[in-house]
Design goal:
Layout: H1 34-48, E1 56-60, H2 66-86, E2 96-102, H3 115-126, H4 140-152, E3 156-163, H5 173-177, H6 181-184, E4 190-198, H7 201-206, H8 209-215, E5 218-222, H9 227-241, H10 249-262, H11 267-283, H12 291-311, H13 315-329, E6 335-336, H14 337-352, H15 362-374, E7 378-384, E8 391-397, H16 403-412
Parallel strand pairs: 1-4, 1-5, 2-3, 3-4
Antiparallel strand pairs: 6-8, 7-8
Helix pairs in contact: 1-2, 3-4, 9-10, 9-11, 10-11, 11-12, 12-16, 13-14, 13-16
The structure holds adenosine-5'-triphosphate.
């Protein structure tokens, strides 16, 4: 069968190498980051020389190259150590063990990670499949003991990279102890270096002084890219991913400008935008990515971002948003707080009938509703009819949110979307 017979084929193909546009692609070159790379290279240098490793804390907004720079230096370090070891006598060989943990992957049901969960993760990275431990059922001290035992069975330097380290929350025992494990006497055969990576500025600010002392030996800030830097990064990516005639200077400039404006200089957003724009251009049979494709791609990404941020809300806020979605569909917004509470109570009863937990009081719900206003999902109107006329609040979705996005978020959250008819609802 030729492509012409397939419903999946497009008439034109603009993407030459799709993997280059994927999230986990590590570029061969890190652009526009010379200063930061110099600083970061110094952190890895002692490891290459077989000296005690340093600890470091990397921070900066999302999509600004923290992970990419770390992967790039890790690959170089491993390759260079391998080359060096080929040419030196046995006793001078450098032993490096690297454990990469994304703390986001070790969250429990309530979206929280703890030092305990990360310690379980480290143990399981070091053990083979049949010998792994579960994330529950061990006393915390037992898990730490097992982890240090596993680490101590290695030799040389152990570099533990904790990506999204902020997910570790308040329980930061590990962040304090792991970098100092040799001084404390938990390990004796190895030297441990810890690199924490975070895009949460509050987490960095709130780190306890003792964690700051041990983990933040070197702090490296990754600032956001400006539109010109985004253009350089994007052009290099487009050169590898797209056919030469598929894009021009306007494609690169517009994708970069939009990512700069709307995603605070995130290279991830710029690359996603380029990929979606190329797909839309292909679907439209265009042999060049043009501004309308890019604008449509930008709208698609914005839509998806809002759905993702709704998915991140806790159950109570999801129920309030569902109540507002039904009120909106029934033409009943803006709705007074009492009406939103009645609708919300119905939603809770529908979803929580099995657990037996009831809805929050109106005041309790209002606290969550205020957070939704703060996050930009909901818009509240203050009605004031003057003396004797009364004062009250009315709520509706902000301009960026639609009932369909709430529905999509429920589905992404694996929560069934139960249809509800709130047309006859009273205040
Ligand atoms: N300087 C750069 N040169 C080339 N590619 C880059 C550069 N900076 C970022 N990228 C690319 O942009 C995307 C996002 O970068 P990365 O994952 O490193 O961001 P991050 O700062 O770790 O974000 P987060 O905090 O959300 O994890 C990746 O595809 C990465 O390869």
């Amino acid at each position: 069968m030729s492509d012409a017979d397939s419903i999946f084929a497009d008439d034109v193909e603009l993407i030459k190498n799709a993997t280059v546009l994927e999230e986990d692609h590590t570029p061969k070159q890190i652009l526009c980051r010379d200063d930061v790379l110099d600083q970061y290279t110094s952190v890895f240098k002692p490891v290459y020389k077989g000296r005690p490793p340093q600890n470091a804390f990397l921070y900066g907004d999302t999509g600004v190259g923290k992970t990419a720079a770390t992967k790039y230096l890790r690959e170089n370090l491993e390759q260079d150590i391998e080359r060096k070891n080929e040419n030196v006598p046995k006793e001078e060989k450098v032993a490096l063990n690297l454990v990469w943990i994304n703390c986001e992957n070790f969250t429990t049901g309530d979206h929280k990670t703890s030092s305990y969960q990360v310690a379980v993760g480290i143990v399981n990275r070091l053990r083979n499949k049949g010998n792994r431990i579960t994330g529950t059922g061990y006393a915390p001290q037992d898990v730490y003991d097992i982890m240090y035992e596993e680490l101590n069975s290695l030799e040389g330097t152990v570099l533990v990279i904790l990506d999204e380290v902020d997910k570790i929350g308040d329980d930061d025992t590990l962040l304090y102890e792991l970098p100092r494990s040799r001084d404390i006497g938990y390990v004796e055969n190895i030297r441990v270096g810890v690199i924490g990576i975070s895009n949460d500025y509050t987490f960095r600010k709130n780190l306890s002084p003792k964690v700051k002392d041990s983990l933040c030996e070197t702090e490296i800030k990754f600032s956001a890219y400006d539109a010109e830097e985004l253009s350089d990064i994007l052009r290099a990516r487009a050169d590898k991913a797209l056919y030469d005639d598929a894009y021009d200077q306007e494609t690169i400039s517009l994708c970069s400008a939009l990512a700069y404006q709307e995603a605070s200089g995130s290279a991830r957003r710029a690359i996603r935008l380029l990929r979606r724009s190329a797909e839309i251009a292909e679907e439209n049979g265009s042999d060049l990515i043009r501004p309308p494709h890019i604008r449509q791609a930008d709208n698609d990404l914005e839509y998806g971002n809002i759905v993702e941020s709704i998915v991140d809300q806790d159950d109570e806020k999801l129920y309030i948003l569902k109540a507002l979605a039904h009120l909106d569909s029934a033409g009943l917004t803006p709705a007074r707080t009492r009406k939103v509470h009645t609708a919300y109570s119905q939603v809770v009863q529908t979803y929580k009938s099995e657990s037996g937990r009831g809805p929050l009081t109106q005041r309790g719900m209002f606290n969550h509703l205020s957070k939704l206003v703060m996050f930009g999902f909901v818009h509240t109107i203050d009605r004031n009819k003057g003396v004797g006329g009364g004062q009250w609040n009315e709520h509706e979705f902000s301009d960026d949110v639609t009932p369909q996005q709430v529905k999509d978020a429920f589905e992404n959250h694996n929560l069934e979307w139960i249809e509800m008819d709130l047309r006859g609802i009273h205040d």
